[in-house]
Amino acid sequence: MLDQRILTKAAALRQLLTSPKLEFFMEAHNGMSARIVEQVGFRAIWASGLTISSAFGVRDRNEASWTQVLEVVNFMSDRTEIPILLDGDTGYGDFNNFARIVRKLDQIEVAGVCIEDKIFPKQNSFLGQSQELTSIEDFVSKIRAGKESQRDPNFSIVARTETLIAGRSMQEALDRAAAYHEAGADAILIHSKKADSTEIEEFCRQWNNLCPVVLVPTKYYTTPADRFRALNVSAVIWANHTMRAAITAMEAVCRRVHAEESLSGVESEIASLACLFELTGEADYAAFAERFSASGSLA
Ligand code: SPV
Ligand code: MG
Fold first, then answer.
1. pTM, whole model, 2 decimals?
2. Same structural domain, 277 and 175
3. What is the CATH number of the domain that holds 77?
4. Is the separation of the CB atoms in 25 and 236 below 8 Å?
5. In terms of domains, do 29 and 137 share one?
6. Residue 128 pLDDT class (50, 70, 90 cuts)
7. How many domains in the chain?
8. In a domain, 258, yes or no
9. Does ligand 1 have an atom closer than 6 angstroms to the CB of 190?
10. What ligand is nearest to the CA atom of residue 124?
11. What is the average per-residue pLDDT within 17-25?
12. 124 in ligand 1 pocket by Cβ < 6 Å?
């Protein structure tokens, strides 16, 4: 039974990845969304490259630097107890750049990182007709360098193959995944942009549980979770849904306030200030100040 209170975050993530139970990782892109994900009961966070980029208002093309992403994920890690799996794109460069990132993530208690076998700068998997893949050799070196650089033995590296996204064969996807597993990857993320799960199911059947499998069903979202359970999938990532929900809500409120020149219409439909203060931990501050504020005043 998983007890995240006594496990390090890295150990908790490793346990979620290796347990036979299907787990769900929810996307967050800043400290607030991470706290909401934790509060509603998710047991792990997907720190999405797409949504962290879009929160900055930039494209998912490595336009945000890795140190900017690190700063965001640092707040996320600082303000939550559940493990975070960071979307590390292609590792922000070569084996050496990736090794540096693993070292830094380990230091700020980010539990693991996922890297994909594309070329830097990457573009989102759902854009364009083709994706250029890196060679198996280069990606294997990157995984090896990353594994050698982690200090916490439980830090996880999830190797993501974009073979099917790139329109290449199932056999190549299986060969790449096997090479990445052999290089030390703790789990394989197999990605698909098909509207149904047929190719994912085929992969899972042939992969035969060689190591944990992680899926991102953004496009095949109608597939029931029980189908993934039957395939022995380790974790499903809901990859961008807090950001998309926020966009819808922000647009609606902005439109209404703009049109009505008043806040009256929206006040009862949005989170209260009390809710905001609760999410940022004001109650903890009050208890802390009670003990340490020299004047004893909370003013
Ligand atoms: C992300 O959330 O940034 C991902 C998943 O990498 S996807 O957008 O499907 O590439
Ligand atoms: Mg991404």
1. 0.96
2. no
3. 3.20.20.60
4. yes
5. yes
6. confident
7. 2
8. no
9. no
10. 1
11. 98
12. yes
Are 234 and 285 in a shared domain? no
Amino acid 152 reads D
What spacing in Å lies between the alpha carbon of 282 and ligand 2's midpoint? 33
Both 153 and 287 in one domain: the answer is no
Q: How far is the CA of 124 from the centre of ligand 2 (A)?
A: 6
Nearest ligand to the CA atom of 48? 1
* Structure tokens, 188: 């394989």
* Residue 3 annotated to the active site: no
Reply yes or no on whether the pLDDT at 106 is more than 60.
Answer: yes
Confidence of residue 4 (pLDDT cuts 50, 70, 90): low
- The 10s digit of each residue's pLDDT in 150-188 is 999 999 999 999 999 999 999 999 999 999 999 999 999
Strand-pairing partners, residue 236, are 24, 215
Kindly state whether residues 227 and 275 are assigned to the same domain: no
Q: Does 257 fall in a domain?
A: no
Q: Strand 23-28 vs strand 235-238: parallel, antiparallel, or unpaired? A: parallel
H or E segment and range at residue 105: helix 95-107
92: phi > 0 → left, psi -120 to 50 → alpha, else beta; which?
left
Query: Ligand 2: distance of its center to the CA of 276 in Å?
Result: 28
